[in-house]
Amino acid sequence: MITLTVTTAAADKVLALGGQLRIELRQGGCCGTHYCFLLAGPQPGDIAIAPGIHAAPDAAQILQGARLDYGAHLKPPRFRVLKNPNTPHRCPCGRSFGKPWPGKETPQCQAYVPMPWDETELRNASSP
Q1: CA count, 13 A, side-chain hemisphere, 27
Q2: CATH architecture of structural domain 5-126
Q3: Phi, psi angle pair for 63, to nearest 5°
Q4: Contact, 103 vs 96, CB < 8 A?
Q5: Domain boundaries along the sequence of the chain
Q6: What is the pLDDT of residues 101-123, one digit of tens each?
Q7: CA 51 to CA 6: how far, in whole Å?
């Protein structure tokens, strides 16, 4: 059983987005690996973390003991992982970890990358 604290803000946002959130790990971000948050149900082998929240096995292992939050006040608003005891090297944005943080304004930083569903909304809003 994975222990992950889910803040009220994160749980409310998952429900508002349809009740399903999947967390994966991908290469990239300023520290080498970043969390990828997807509006998707569980895949074979995924681990249930909280109601409506599933993680790929490698992500679930890294998330053990961490806190999932949603920062609606951030620009752009986003999910982030806070206080993760398994990632001593991480970006302050809470989305990238692995190597020591290289500092502000790193081109690979995920801090200013919108959530995938926000990118779709932005594209739809700008279409004629």
Answers
A1: 0
A2: Sandwich (2.60)
A3: -80, -10
A4: no
A5: 5-126
A6: 888 777 777 777 777 777 554 34
A7: 10
